[in-house]
Every structure is written in structure tokens, then in C-alpha cells.
Specification:
Elements (H helix, E strand, L loop, with lengths): L13 H13 L3 E2 L18 H7 L4 E7 L5 H17 L3 E3 L3 H10 L2 E7 L11 H7 L2 E4 L28
Amino acid sequence: MKTAAATSYRDLSEEQERRALKLQRSSLVVDAVGSSIVSPEPPTKEGKGHVERALEAGVNVLNVTLAAHADTFERFLHQVADYLDLFDARENTMQVETIADIAKARESGKLGIIFGVQTGSIVGTDMYLWSIAHKLGCRIAQLTYNERNLLGDGCMAGSRPTDGSPFRK
């Protein structure tokens, strides 16, 4: 039996909604563009904070951006501190550093949070800072964002390539 395709999630039949919820609950859901949930925290909607809404939506793991554009390592450290405070204050959140942590977050019903950066500018010329960022839990890194940095050209860097970047060769 063929059913009409819904044009919006609001148009689902009861059977379609039941099947969608079953699929969602059996899936691992990772929000890889989660942005930031502290400093500042997104506004509440219908009396619910971002963490609660993400968990209700079935999100198991969220990648948060701790640095972008021309942010410094100091800014990255401030963001790490804010998230560590969040983990201490909110029992429904946890830091994700390993694949096992992803499974633990899903099994425990907590929102697992993966630290990420969208720029290599946080390390400047001090490549050893990547090791420190990793020890603090950074697991996702893109080397450039919009702007040019010492590691490469961002998408808005213009037509003249950066001289001396080891990644341009």
C-alpha cells in the first residue's frame, strides 16, 4: 500500500510519525554543525534550553565550535573552561573524546559534546599548541575558515596564495 509523501514533518500521518520516531530512536544522531551552546547560550524556546531541545530532538552528540575566524589560543582556553563548567553543572551533558564516549552518551541519554575549531589561527606559529588542544579534548579541526592564516587560505582570502604555508605545496 502506497501512502502519500508528506511535504512537511507536520503533515505526517500517525503511522509515518510512529515509523520516523522509531527510526530516530534507533539511530545515532550527530549534529556536526552545532555551533555553540555556551558563551553565549542560545535563547530558550518554549521554556526549554538548547540542551533539552537537542535531547528531545534525538541528538546524541553535538560538535561545538570553540574557535573560528582569527580566534587565539586564549579564546579557545576560555571556551574550554566554559564547557568544563557546563559539564560540572549539567548532569545531562558530557565531553566526548573517544568513540566509546559517543556510545556512553547515547546509552546514558546525555548530550555528548565534541570540541572543535574552525581555524588553525589558534596555534599561530606554535604547532605544539595542537597537542595541548588535543589533550583538552579538541577532536575536530579545520585549518582555515574564511580568513587566511599561517596554515593556508580561507575561502575569502582572495586570489593571491599565502607564501610559505607548508600545506600549499
